[in-house]
Design a protein that fits this description.
Chain B: Pfam families: SUFBD_core (PF01458), SufBD_N (PF19295). Chain B: It comes from Aequorivita aquimaris. The complex is a heterodimer of chains A (249) and B (437). Chain A has 249 residues and is of the alpha/beta class. Chain A has one domain: 3-Layer(aba) Sandwich (Rossmann fold). Chain A has nine helices and twelve strands. In chain A, the strands form three sheets. A six-stranded mixed beta sheet of chain A has the order 6-9-10-3-11-12, sandwiched between helices. Chain A has a four-stranded antiparallel beta sheet with strand order 2-1-4-5, with helices on one face. In chain A, strand 9, helix 7 and strand 10 form a beta-alpha-beta unit. The longest helix of chain A is centred in the middle third of the chain and has 15 residues. The radius of gyration of chain A is 18 Å and the shape is globular. Chain B is of the alpha/beta class and 437 residues long. Chain B has nine helices and 20 strands. The mean pLDDT of chain B is 93. The chains are: A alpha/beta (249), B alpha/beta (437). At the A-B interface, helix 2, strand 7 and helix 3 of A face helix 7 and helix 8 of B.
C-alpha cells in the first residue's frame, strides 16, 4: 500500500529525514517510535504532503502510484489520513459542518454527488456513538476551546467518518487519560480491516497495549535504525533508547 | 468650476427656499462658512493621510436630481432584510419613496427628516439635538448646510422597538453622476431599545458620491444596536460620518460590514458623556479589485467607569487598500476606563495594502487601555490541516477567512441579518462550502 524508498526530506535545504525505507501493506499496523527530534512528525507530514517540506531524494508511492508531487488534498482523496498532534481551531465552523465539507469535497474529487443528508446524519450518529462523543460536541466550533483529549477524539471521529485506507496517528496518545485512550484505541481497532493500514507514531509503549502493532520501527536522526515486532516496544519502554545508540556504534 | 464652487453656488440657490425664521438657518449658514473655509480634506491632513478624495471630486455631480426615480420592488427586494418585519425608510436618489417605506408614528416616530424640520411639533427635538453631537469638520459641515432629507427616528422612554428599522438609500443611475447627502437623526429615550440597519446601494454603474451624517443620542440606560452594510458597486463611494452621544448606563454597538464600493470612509465617533457606558465598534472588511476602505474611529471617554470594545477584521485581496485609524481619548476625569482595541488584517495578495494606526491619548491615571494590531498572511499549518482532510486550497482559504471574521460575526444579534451577512461573505470569498455558514 505505502512504499517509502530512500526518502530524504527537510526544510530549507537541511534534511531531517535521511534515507527512510518503509513498506506498509494492507491489514498491517506499524508503530514508529523514537526520541524527541528524531523526525517522527516530519515523516508523517511529508507523507501527508505538507508543502514546506522539500523531498531531496527518494520517493513515496501509495498503491503503486508516486504521490511525491501531489497536493495534500489529493493525497487525502486517495485515502491518506493524518491525525494531527496539534489540531487547528476553526471558530464558527461546527464539527458537523466541517466533516460534511471534507466528505463532500472528497466525493466531488471522485465525481460523486454530495452524500445525502440522511445518510450523512446516520453515519455521524453511528461514529459519534462508537467514540462515545456527545451530540452537543458536534455543534461546537471545530477544536475551539476543546481540551487536549477532546481534540484527539475529534481527530479519530474525523478519521472514522472519512474511512481512509491509510491512517497515520501522530502522537494521538499525548494528552489523553487512560479512559480516553481506551475509547480512542477501541475506535481505531473497530475501523481496522484487512483492506486498510495504520501507522502509529508515539513516544510511549502505552498506546500499543491497545492498538497492537505488527511491526515496530525505531526512528533516530532521520533514519529507521531498528525494526522488530511488538516486543521491541516493551524493550524500549524498559531500557529507553540509549542501548540502541550503543548498538549502532 | 470646481466641485467646491459648484456646491457653494448651489447653497445660495438653496437659501432662497429656506424659511429665514427657522432655527436651522443660522446653523446652515455657519456650516457653509466652515466648508467654504476648509474645503474638502486633503492628504496633507493627518486624518486623511491614506485616503485621497481627489478622483472623487472630478465628476460633474448632480446635486438636486430632477430625473425620474421610479424603483420597482422586485428589483430591490433583495436589499431588504424583511418585506414585512421591519420598519423602512427608503430614499431614492435622495428623495423619500413612500411606496417602498414603512414608517410609523404609533408610539414611536420612524419618519422623515424633511417632516421633522418643517413641522412645529418636532421643533423641540430638533432644537435639542440637531447638530449637537456632530463635529464641525468640513464634510460634516457640508452635509449640515444642505440638510434636507434623511431618517428621523425618535424612540420614547422605556419603548422596546419590536422590529428592526432599515434605512436604505438607493441611487438609480438616472443621473450620470449624483451627489447625495442624507442626514439622519436618531434619538433613543431613557431605557429604550432599538436595532437599526443602514445601507447605501447603487442600482447602476454610474458614479455616486454619498456624504452621509448620522447623529445618534442615547439617553440614560438606552440600548442601541446599529448595523452598517456597505456592499456597493465599484463606482459608488461613501463618506459616512456617524456621531454617537451616550448618556450614563447606555450600551451602543455599531457593526460595519465593509464589503466594497469604490471608496468608503467611515468616520465613526463615540462620545461617552455619563458613567457606566458601554461602546462596541466592530467591523469586517473584505475588499478586492482596487477598492479602498478607511475606518477612522474615535472613542472619547469623557466620564469614568466606562468600557469600549473595538474589533476590526480585514481581508484584502488583489490591489485593494484598507486603512484603520483608531483613536481613543481618555479625559483626565475619566478614571477606571477599560478601553480595548483590536485590529487584525490578512493580506491575500501581494499588491494589497493595509495602513493601520492606533492612537491612544490618555490623560487619566487609573485606566486599562490595550490595543493590538496584526497584519499577516494565511497560517500555513492551518491550511495544511484543512487540506489534509481533503478540502481544496481555495475552500480551505475560505474556511480560514470565515473563521478569521467570525469573532465579529458572532456578535450580530439579528439572526436574519447574520444569515444575510454570512451569504455576502460566502459570495465575496467566491466559494460555496456545501453548507449554510
Amino acid at each position: 500500500m505505502l512504499k517509502i524508498k530512500d526518502l530524504h526530506a527537510g526544510l530549507e535545504g537541511k534534511d531531517i529525514l535521511q534515507g527512510i525505507n518503509l513498506e506498509v501493506k494492507a491489514g498491517e499496523v506499524h508503530a514508529i517510535m523514537g526520541p524527541n527530534g528524531s523526525g517522527k512528525s516530519t515523516l508523517a507530514s511529508v507523507v501527508a504532503g505538507k508543502e514546506e517540506y522539500e523531498v531531496s531524494r527518494g520517493y513515496i508511492t501509495f498503491e503503486n502510484e508516486d504521490i511525491s508531487e501531489l497536493d495534500p488534498e489529493e493525497r487525502a482523496h486517495k485515502g491518506i489520513f493524518l491525525s494531527f498532534q496539534y489540531p487547528v481551531e476553526i471558530p464558527g465552523v461546527s464539527v458537523t459542518n466541517f466533516i460534511k465539507t471534507a466528505i463532500n469535497e472528497t466525493r466531488k474529487s471522485k465525481k460523486m454527488d454530495d452524500m445525502p443528508a440522511s445518510e450523512m446524519l446516520k453515519m455521524i450518529k453511528e461514529k459519534a456513538d462508537m467514540l462515545e462523543i456527545d451530540r452537543k460536541f458536534l455543534s461546537r466550533s471545530l477544536n475551539e476551546g476543546f481540551s487536549g483529549g477532546e481534540k484527539k477524539r475529534n481527530e479519530i471521529f474525523q478519521m472514522a467518518m472519512l474511512e481512509p485506507k491509510l491512517a497515520i496517528l501522530d502522537e494521538t496518545d499525548s494528552g489523553l487519560d487512560i479512559d480516553a485512550l481506551k475509547i480512542v484505541a477501541n475506535g481505531v481497532n473497530k475501523l481496522k480491516s484487512g483492506d486498510n493500514a495504520v501507522i502509529v507514531i508515539t513516544h510511549y509503549q502505552r498506546l500499543l497495549d491497545y492498538i497492537v502493532p505488527d511491526f515496530v520501527h525505531v526512528l533516530m536522526n532521520g533514519r529507521i535504525v531498528k525494526s522488530g515486532t511488538k516486543e521491541l516496544a516493551y524493550e524500549l519502554e524498559e531500557k529507553g533508547y540509549d542501548w540502541i545508540k550503543e548498538e549502532l556504534v | 468650476m470646481s466641485f467646491k464652487d459648484k456646491l457653494l453656488s448651489s447653497y445660495i440657490a438653496l437659501e432662497d427656499y429656506l424659511e429665514f425664521d427657522s432655527p436651522l438657518h443660522d446653523v446652515r449658514n455657519n456650516a457653509i462658512k466652515i466648508f467654504e473655509e476648509k474645503g474638502f480634506p486633503t492628504k496633507k491632513e493627518e486624518a486623511w493621510k491614506y485616503t485621497s478624495l481627489n478622483t472623487l471630486l472630478k465628476p460633474d455631480y448632480s446635486i438636486y436630481s430632477n430625473k425620474e426615480r421610479n424603483v420597482e420592488l422586485k428589483n430591490v427586494r433583495k436589499y431588504f432584510l424583511h418585506e414585512i418585519d421591519t420598519y423602512k425608510l427608503v430614499f431614492v436618489d435622495g428623495v423619500y419613496n413612500s411606496f417602498l417605506s414603512e414608517t410609523t408614528h404609533d408610539s414611536l416616530d420612524v419618519c422623515l427628516m424633511s417632516a421633522a424640520l418643517n413641522k412645529s411639533k418636532y421643533k423641540p427635538v430638533i432644537e435639542a439635538y440637531f447638530n449637537k453631537a456632530a463635529k464641525s469638520d468640513s464634510l460634516t459641515a457640508l452635509n449640515t448646510a444642505f440638510t434636507k432629507e434623511g431618517a428621523y427616528i425618535h424612540i420614547p422612554a422605556h419603548k422596546e422597538v419590536e422590529k428592526p428599522i432599515e434605512i436604505i438609500n438607493f441611487s438609480t443611475g438616472n443621473e450620470a453622476a449624483i451627489f447625495l447627502q442624507p442626514r439622519n437623526l436618531i434619538v433613543v429615550g431613557e431605557n429604550a431599545h432599538v436595532q437599526i440597519i443602514e445601507r447605501h446601494q447603487s442600482l447602476s454603474s454610474n458614479e455616486v458620491l454619498t456624504n452621509s451624517v448620522t447623529e445618534i443620542f442615547a439617553e440614560k440606560r438606552a440600548y442601541v444596536d446599529y448595523y452598517k452594510i456597505q456592499n456597493d458597486e465599484a463606482t459608488a463611494s461613501l463618506i459616512d460620518n456617524t456621531y454617537i452621544s451616550q448618556q450614563r448606563d447606555t450600551v451602543c454597538r455599531v457593526h460595519t460590514f465593509a464589503f466594497g464600493g469604490k471608496l468608503v470612509r467611515n468616520n465613526l465617533n463615540f462620545f461617552q458623556k455619563g458613567e457606566n457606558c458601554d461602546s462596541t465598534l466592530k467591523g469586517i472588511t473584505i475588499l478586492e479589485g482596487k477598492q479602498h476602505t478607511d475606518h477612522n474611529t474615535l472613542v472619547h471617554h469623557i466620564a469614568p467607569n466606562c468600557e469600549s470594545h473595538q474589533d476590526y477584521k480585514g481581508l484584502f485581496a488583489e490591489a485593494s487598500t484598507g486603512v484603520f485609524n483608531g483613536k481613543i481619548i481618555v479625559e483626565k476625569d475619566a478614571q477606571k476606563i477599560d478601553a480595548f482595541q483590536q485590529n487584525n488584517n490578512i493580506l491575500i495578495d501581494d499588491k494589497a495594502t493595509i495602513n493601520a494606526k492606533p492612537q491612544l491619548e490618555i490623560f487619566a491615571d487609573d485606566v486599562k487601555c490595550s490595543h493590538g494590531c496584526t497584519i499577516g498572511q494565511f497560517d500555513e499549518d492551518a491550511l495544511f490541516y484543512l487540506r489534509s482532510r481533503g478540502i481544496g486550497l481555495k475552500e480551505s482559504r475560505a474556511l480560514l477567512m470565515y473563521a478569521f471574521a467570525n469573532t465579529v460575526l458572532e456578535s450580530v444579534k439579528i439572526p436574519e441579518l447574520k444569515v444575510r451577512i454570512n451569504k455576502l461573505i460566502a459570495n465575496k470569498i467566491g466559494v460555496s462550502l456545501g453548507f449554510e455558514l
